[in-house]
Each structure stands twice: as C-alpha cells, then as structure tokens.
Amino acid sequence: MTGSSQIRAAQSLSPIPIPVGIGLKSQHYHYILDEKPKLGWFEVHPENYMCAGGPPHRYLSAIRETYELSLHSVGTSLGSVTRPDVRHLDALKALVERYEPFLVSDHISWSRGPVHYHTDLLPLPYSQEALDVLIRNVGIMQEHLGRQVLLENPSTYLEFARADMDEPEFLTELVKRAGCGLIMDVNNVFVCAANHGLDTDDYLARIPWEAVQEIHLAGHAVEERDGFELRIDDHGSHVSTDVWALYEKAIGHKDMVPTLIEWDSNIPEFPVLMAEAEKARAVLNV
User: pTM value?
Assistant: First the structure.
C-alpha cells in the first residue's frame, strides 16, 4: 500500500447529523453556547488557535462538546516552491489531536516565499511545474498530520498568460496524484466564471466529484473597473441568488455534501448566518 493510500485508509470521518455548518467567529461564542443553534458543525481557521491556552481554547473546547469541527487552514502555503513550515505543521497537528476535527483543509494557493509571508492567498499558474510543487507539499502535509486533507478551488481576478491545463484538469490531476480531497467553493466558481467568461455547467461537469467532501457558500462584492464588472470574493454579504442557483446544480452532481456558510467581513449577528444555513438545509432537503 502506498503512503497516500495509507493516509486515506487511516482517515475516519465522523457522521454529521446536520450537514450544514457556519464559520466560527469569536463574537458569536456566547450566543452559540447559550442558544445551542441547530447546526452540525463549525469551521475554524486553526491559525487563530495556535496558542497554548487562554479564552480562545476555553470557548472552542466548550463548543466542541456539542458540535463537530472542521479546521480550514489559511497559512500552510501549499503552492510555495519552499516546503511547508514544519513549525506550522506541528502546531496544526497539535490542534488536530486536541479537537479531532472531521475535516482538515487548506487552499490551492501560496502566501510564503523564502523570506516573507504575504497576507493574501495568491493564485497558482495551472502549469505542470506548479502542479508538481503542490502535490509534493500536499504529500508533506498529509504525512505530517497522518490524514487526508482537502484543498479548496481559488477565486481569481486575472488569468495567467500561459497555462498547461484548465482548472478542472488541474483538480483532477491533483486528487489523482496527491490522494487529497477537495472543497468545492461554489462562490469561487461563480466569481471566476463571471470574471473570466467561463461556463459554469462545463466546469461542474468536469471536476472530480468523487473527491469533493465539502462545499463552501459565501457572498461576494461587485466593483466597476474600467467599464468591467469585477466580482470580488470578500465573504462580506449574503450568498447571491446566482450562487444559490449554482449550488443547486452542484449538489445535483453529489448530494448531501457537508456545506459551509462563510462570512468573514462585515460580520452580522448570528441569526443572519443561521438564516443562510437554513437556506442551504432547504436546498439539501434535510
């Protein structure tokens, strides 16, 4: 059995009574603990909890007593030519062992060079070289954690002048060679399609749905740039009508995928997020 096969065989996903979750924010800790909303899980950015203790862990431990957790990293920089930072992977592994999340994930992006970290999730060219680097680094991460991880499709605003393949081809080769899973961010699909003139139906038909283990839904902003309507993935508003329609098409390819509501800027009161989660549950018919 290969190393990646061992990782896949060792993974055990916990059942989720309600397949819809919400991104956890500190301003909602008290509401969640007091009201116990009817959700299956919360997703957290592990970088916010890479400390020994204190209030963040106290609240997260209390929430974990009732809900499943997913860890969605933003700092591993799996697309960097440099290998993943072992200290970061050690801190992530400690959180995995402490909270036993049902999913661990990151992004198809890079943010770290030989010297500096960048504050954005920067896109990769869809080249064979970039794919090889990403596969190497995903392998390092999975071996370090001893479990499979998921990678999220990006949102982009410009296209590289040269590419060896398109995104569905890139994703297919990634999961085939790395043994990882995927997060399908439906908002990102819509944003990229609108910005680059892509066909969303063709995209959904060609991605490897057998590897998709989570779906993300979020809001986006629209800006006018030199007469062009640019969509920006800012996670700062309600999921748009167009993205809800695309979500219905997505689950037609694979039903009952755990679905997350993301809202990371202009964060509203928790009942607003809960209303978005209820819309997702209605689409899933659960």
Answer: 0.91
